[in-house]
């Protein structure tokens, strides 16, 4: 089921959930291009790829974007049954598939993060919350599917005295589409981190790396990031 993304055309300010990855990086700059007052919000939930937070901090500092990193590591014991939050669980390699997907699911992650972002929006008088759910994630993660996004948008409209619009501009787009949009904006994806591992170089083997590399291949361009191992068979 494919539904159109929620809209927030009348908003003058927005809270962007900004992980430091290429999807949220594009969403962030798209909101800036709209002329909105942008407040970037990142979360430290004990993810093993916390390097993404350093990338997010650097980008916001470079562009003078108000940025808050919220430490929610206290909930780590509630969400540690995932390879993304538990280093004792092996990180699966290869393309996303039914046999490796479940280990990369962080329980209820987007509902948690969206709830906190909505609170910040109400607190500072922003009218919107942006996040980077996209079409390529529909089969992978329930909390990136249109049904979830639209239900959360309804909740955001009634949970407080001030209704907040949840905006997912790439809800019906692929990773390659997002990259194409960002390249058209002149964005430099060297300023992003996608790998599920937090090592100095991207691994090139996890599902997230492979999806990223496939997006660059689909756009007939090279990924500016360096990799420990670049798979020979990655096509868009």
From TrEMBL:
InterPro entries the UniProt entry points to: QueC (IPR018317), Rossmann-like_a/b/a_fold (IPR014729)
Reported cofactor(s): Zn(2+)
EC annotation from Swiss-Prot or TrEMBL: 6.3.4.20
Residues involved in ATP binding: 18-28
Cited SUPFAM superfamilies: Adenine nucleotide alpha hydrolases-like
Pathway: Purine metabolism; 7-cyano-7-deazaguanine biosynthesis
Acyltransferase recorded as keyword: no
EC category: ligase
A family per Pfam: QueC
Annotated positions binding Zn(2+): 195, 203, 206, 209
Catalytic activity annotation: 7-carboxy-7-carbaguanine + NH4(+) + 2 ATP = 7-cyano-7-carbaguanine + 2 AMP + 2 diphosphate + 2 H(+)
Record key words, sorted: ATP-binding, Ligase, Metal-binding, Nucleotide-binding, Queuosine biosynthesis, Zinc
Note on how the cofactor is bound: Binds 1 zinc ion per subunit.
NCBIfam families per UniProt: 7-cyano-7-deazaguanine synthase QueC (TIGR00364)
Entry similarity comment: Belongs to the QueC family.
Role noted for this protein: Catalyzes the ATP-dependent conversion of 7-carboxy-7-deazaguanine (CDG) to 7-cyano-7-deazaguanine (preQ(0)).
Record protein name field: 7-cyano-7-deazaguanine synthase
Lineage start: Bacteria, Pseudomonadati, Pseudomonadota, Gammaproteobacteria, Oceanospirillales
Gene: queC
